[in-house]
Write a structure and sequence with these properties.
Elements (H helix, E strand, L loop, with lengths): L26 H10 L3 H6 L16 H13 L5 H10 L1 H7 L6 H11 L3 H14 L7 E10 L7 E3 H24 L10 H22 L4 E3 L6 E5 L2 E14 L11 E9 L8 H12 L5 E3 L7 H10 L2 E3 L5 H4 L9 E3 L4 E3 L5 E10 L2 E7 L2 H4 L17 E4 L3 H11 L2 H7 L2 H15 L10 H52 L4 H4 L1
Parallel strand pairs: 1-7, 7-8
Antiparallel strand pairs: 1-5, 2-3, 4-5, 5-6, 9-10, 10-11, 11-12, 12-13
Helix pairs in contact: 1-3, 1-17, 3-17, 4-5, 4-6, 7-17, 8-9
């Protein structure tokens, strides 16, 4: 087989257009189309002016800078320096910038100045999907994932650890100061680098100790004071809990594309998911102007308070409990029947538990019912039902126990089980795409406010990936229809020539 010749000094007879170097369905083209669709009101929400200033050197157009950042987040490039390099040597970025080369300082200043308003861009991406009637807003799924902060977990200390670190730092500063005093050399015009770093560390430690005491925290990270120690799949990390609500795309004959749209996103310091269900549902409703009929959540969100909120919001929630093993116990408190006339419970063995007292736990009034040791000790269930030989079996009845019991009955139905199977195909693939394909395994910014802005832009980029896929499918359909129409016209033309006695080869 012969070798195809090539030359790095190849020239064109006619110079190509920049537009010819990028395929019609390329991701960068959709990003540009998305940014160009923003009207003046959306730019005002982003706090960005399009007209620039009358005086001074010309500045880069905001449309171009925003396009670069959005496309960068979609393609695993979230660093201003990497974006600068991409704007010089990657065709897709050269097309987006029109052969302009913004440096990393320009890109960073634009991002830093406007990243807090990027949540409006996230809402706009949802609005675009809704206006195209793409999202199935009847169902949504929520989940959380731990994302590492831009800080080492080894720099996380409690109060005692900070005290020990401060003592070592003070000792090191004293040694460095003694070395400078003993030396016969004239004092340097500036502090030595080691001493400067030690004094900076001492300042950071004291500030962390003040915050630890003032905010009643258990521990704090010296690099990112808002990051928290969390248990992830790879072990303990210093990071944030990223929460997302996802709804599927509608699948119809005219729209066979599958995919997901993130309708709500947040980054929190709480490693537990329980308190995040209601805020995510409220944010999703605000962003979509629609209250989803069904919400899917895993056992990490299960609580009586969340069930009560869902009842108040008139939203069906499908989520299992983490205590499935306990529920299988034949002497679980759900097996005890209540008699409202006598305010007593009857155990599975027919013994009576009477009301004893009430106590407050976390602002909840808990009613306590007891049997007696004399009754429970000779019972055949003693050791399984209870091991207390003095009071016997105790039941703690919470205000939301009835709601929990109703939800258990609902989750045992085939309908609930069938609906819940959809959770894994919605939100878990979304996190997989964000982490594996978009490279979102660690935040680049520090501080809760900045981290939330970064998470919002990641969610926007995810939605744009989904919208681009739909746009590309529609573009392919339109191209196929156009080719089909041209073929029909061609056939008619040749048919007319054939009628006049011309052969196809003669016409060509």
């Amino acid at each position: 087989m012969p070798v195809r010749p090539f030359s790095r000094e190849q020239i064109w007879f006619l110079p190509p257009r920049l537009d010819d170097l990028l395929p019609d369905d390329h991701t960068a083209r959709y990003v540009a189309e998305f940014v160009d669709s923003l009207d003046s009101s959306e730019w005002q929400k982003l706090g960005i002016g399009l007209n620039g200033e009358l005086l001074g050197a010309p500045e880069y157009h905001p449309r171009m800078l925003l396009s670069v950042w959005l496309y960068g987040f979609m393609t695993r490039t979230r660093s201003s320096r990497k974006l600068e390099a991409a704007c010089r040597d990657q065709i897709s970025y050269l097309w987006l910038t029109g052969l302009q080369h913004p440096d990393h300082n320009t890109l960073w200043r634009f991002y830093k100045e406007h990243r807090d308003q990027m949540r409006h861009l996230f809402k706009y991406s949802i609005k675009v999907a809704i206006n195209l009637n793409l999202i199935d807003l009847a169902i949504q799924a929520v989940d959380g994932t731990k994302v590492a902060a831009n800080a080492s977990k080894d720099r996380t200390y409690d109060a005692k650890g900070l005290q020990r670190l401060l003592a070592r730092t003070e000792e090191a500063i004293g040694d460095l100061e003694n070395q400078n005093e003993v030396s016969n050399d004239p004092p340097p015009p500036r502090l030595p680098e080691q001493l400067k770093q030690a004094e900076q560390l001492r300042t950071e430690i004291k500030a962390a100790m003040e915050r630890l005491a003032g905010e009643d925290l258990k521990r704090i990270n010296l690099t990112d004071g808002d990051a928290n120690l969390m248990k992830g799949r790879q072990g303990m990390v210093s990071g944030y809990n990223v929460q997302a609500m996802v709804s599927p795309l509608k699948t119809t004959e005219t729209q066979p594309t599958t995919g997901m749209i993130i309708t709500a996103v947040d980054a929190v310091q709480d490693p537990v998911d329980t308190n995040q269900l209601t805020p995510l549902m409220e944010q999703a409703e605000e962003n979509t102007d629609t209250k989803a009929d069904e919400t899917l959540a895993d056992a990490g969100y299960h609580s009586g308070a969340n069930l009560a909120d869902c009842v108040e919001r008139k939203q069906v929630v499908i989520m299992p409990e983490s205590q499935d093993r306990a529920l299988k116990n034949p002497y679980h408190k759900d097996r005890f029947s209540y008699n409202p006339e006598t305010d007593t419970f009857t155990c599975p063995e027919g013994q009576t538990l009477r009301y004893v007292r009430a106590k407050h736990v976390k602002h909840n009034l808990i009613r306590i019912y007891h049997s007696s040791g004399a009754i429970c000790r000779p019972c055949k269930a003693f050791g399984k039902c209870t091991t207390c030989s003095h009071h016997g079996r105790e039941l703690q009845i919470r205000p939301d126990d009835g709601l929990l019991k109703q939800h258990r009955a609902w989750m045992a139905t085939e309908e609930a089980k069938s609906i819940y199977t959809r959770r894994k195909e919605l939100v878990e693939p979304a996190f997989g795409i964000v982490k594996e394909q978009m490279g979102f395994r660690q935040f680049l910014l520090r501080g809760l406010r900045n981290v939330r802005a970064e998470a919002s832009l990641i969610a926007t980029a995810f939605n744009l990936r989904t919208l681009h896929h739909v746009w590309r499918v529609q573009l392919t359909k339109e191209r196929a229809l156009l080719v089909s129409a041209l073929q029909r016209i061609e056939q008619k033309i040749f048919a007319n020539f054939a009628f006049m006695g011309f052969k196809r080869a003669e016409v060509l």
